[in-house]
Amino acid sequence: MDIKEYISSGIIESYVMGLASAEERAEFEALCRRFPELIVARDEFELALEKQAQSAGINPDSDLKEKIMSAYRKERPMSGGRVTKLNKRNTGIALRWITAASIVLLLGAVWLAFDFYMQKKDAIARLESMEKVRVLMSDPNVMVVNLRGTDKAPQASASIYWDSTSSDVYLVVKNMPKLPSEKQYQLWALINNQPKDLGLFDVNKEGGVMLKMVNTQKADAFAITIENRGNTGGPNTNTMQVMGKTNL
């Protein structure tokens, strides 16, 4: 047997962490009696776990400690037909490993809770956007301008909700992909063939995003281009993604 290949197979980690099957454990213990380097590798991995657990610095309560020790005494493998006594070092390793595993599980639970919170927050934001769109669509003073994709972005689409009384401009992104970090979308109002900047914006999702843009009292058309982040110049017409006329 190539003992180095056996060690690199992950059996030691599985054995120490209790993930090995009964057959794998029996084979490992038998091989330990033949190959001392297996015992050395096992002890090194246990020590590494002990150091990692020590850095966490959290002690379990007394009830948990007793349950762990009871289970540990039952599961500790036999060697040479005799029960191996539980020494202080092994006890510390077991407790610290369980502590480290508990911390990992706790962090996982925190992450899942945070992820659920963010998904819920995103869903609420989308519902609020949908409600705003519904209110705007029912307002007789609001004009809806559909922006359709150009030859450069035929699948892109967006809508403008333009309030003629307040001059408010709301942009609803329907299908516009996320851009690289150095780029931004920019909305323009075309007035007598002259562009008016209505604001730069980012899109983190392809659809369902509603944004309040810069007001404008006049517009013959609206268009969106891709610009360098923070653009302060005019539009790059070569990157125009969508455009729509107001039909005024």
Our measurement of the CA-to-CA distance between the termini, rounded to an integer number of angstroms, reads 85 Å
User: What oligomeric state best describes the polypeptide chains here?
Assistant: single chain
Going across the biggest sheet, name each strand in turn.
Answer: 5-4-7-8-1-2-3-6
Using the CA coordinates, give the radius of gyration. 32 Å
- What's the SSE pattern? HHHHHHEEEEEEEE
Backbone structural class: alpha+beta
Low-confidence stretches: 78-86
How much β-strand is present in the residues? 15-25%
| Biggest pleated sheet | 8 strands, antiparallel
By DSSP, the count of extended strands is: 8
Using the alpha-carbon principal axes, give the shape: elongated
The tally of helices reads 6
Rounded average pLDDT: 77
Number of discrete domains: 2
The helicity comes to: 40-55%
Description:
- It is a single chain.
- With 248 residues, the chain is an alpha+beta fold.
- The chain contains six helices and eight strands, in the order ααααααββββββββ.
- It has an eight-stranded antiparallel β-sheet with strand order 5-4-7-8-1-2-3-6, covered by helices on one side.
- Strand 4 and strand 5 form a beta hairpin.
- The chain is elongated and about 90 Å long.
- The N and C termini lie far apart (85 Å).
- The model is unreliable at 78-86 (pLDDT under 50).
